[in-house]
Amino acid sequence: MSKFKIGDRVRVERDEKEYPARGTWADYRGKTGTVVIASQFGEVGVAFKAVKMDPTAPGGMVRQGSDTTFFLPHELVLIPPGSRGRKDRARAAQEAR
């Protein structure tokens, strides 16, 4: 059972001393996405582009214009709901001036 649920926002991040980056993994380092599949085998499917909720779809999510990339749970960090991303924080700081 995965600790991630469909619809969770996640950032690709892992302990690279324990799990050194090889191949194309580094291309995803630091990216944020939405969990669209939580596999029973422990893998987590993440979409990096727009997704929308659809209650009639299996699992409740529909991907739009995006492929799903699979990660292991130790490669992802949950982004708390309501937290602001880097761009939003920069915009808020700009508006506060």
Q: Taking strands numbered 1, 2, ... along the chain, how are they ordered across the largest sheet?
A: 6-3-2-1-7
Uncertain parts: none
With helices defined by DSSP (H or I, 4 residues minimum), what is the helix count? Answer: 1
Order of helices and strands: EEEEEEEH
How many domain units? 1
Report how far the terminal alpha carbons are from each other: 46 Å
The gross shape turns out to be globular
Largest sheet properties: 5 strands, antiparallel
Q: In words, what does this structure look like?
A:
The protein has one domain. The protein is mainly beta and 97 residues long. It has one helix at 86-96, and strands at 9-12, 32-38, 44-47, 51-53, 61-63, 68-71, 76-78. The chain starts with 8 loop residues before the first strand and ends with a helix. The chain is globular, with a radius of gyration of 15 Å.
How would you summarize what this structure contains?
The protein is mostly beta strands and 97 residues long. Helix content is 11%, strand content 29%.
Keyword list:
97 residues; globular
Secondary-structure blueprint of this entry?
Elements (H helix, E strand, L loop, with lengths): L8 E4 L19 E7 L5 E4 L3 E3 L7 E3 L4 E4 L4 E3 L7 H11 L1
Antiparallel strand pairs: 1-2, 1-7, 2-3, 3-6, 4-5
